[in-house]
Amino acid sequence: MEKKDIVKSMKQQTNGAGMITQKGFAVWMGFADQYKAKKRYLEGLEAVDGKYYLIDDIADRLIERKAV
User: Could you give the count of Cα atoms lying within 13 Å of 4 in the half-sphere of its Cβ?
Assistant: First the structure.
């Protein structure tokens, strides 16, 4: 999966928004526990208002983890 595909899929989850919440990301990933999603994937990313994460940043993180 390429970055553009990840971004497109997440934007569909958020009705076209460029940001997603921790809970929205957990739902998109299929996690039952949003805190596990945060710990595994969102920790260290900058959050706007402590709640919203840029979809592009998350996509970059997912690509990085895939490469390892």
Answer: 0
One-letter-per-residue 3-state SS of 27-67 = HHHCCCCHHHHHHHHHCCCCEECCCEEEHHHHHHHHHHHHH
The pair of structure tokens assigned to 57 is 């940043």
Residue 65 has pLDDT above 90, yes or no: no
pLDDT class for 10, splitting at 50, 70, 90?
very high
Instruction: Give strand pairing partners of 50.
Output: none
At residue 3, the 3 state secondary structure works out as helix
Q: CA distances (Å), 54 to each of 29, 36, 60, in order?
A: 15, 18, 10
The encoded tokens of residue 51 equal: 């709640």
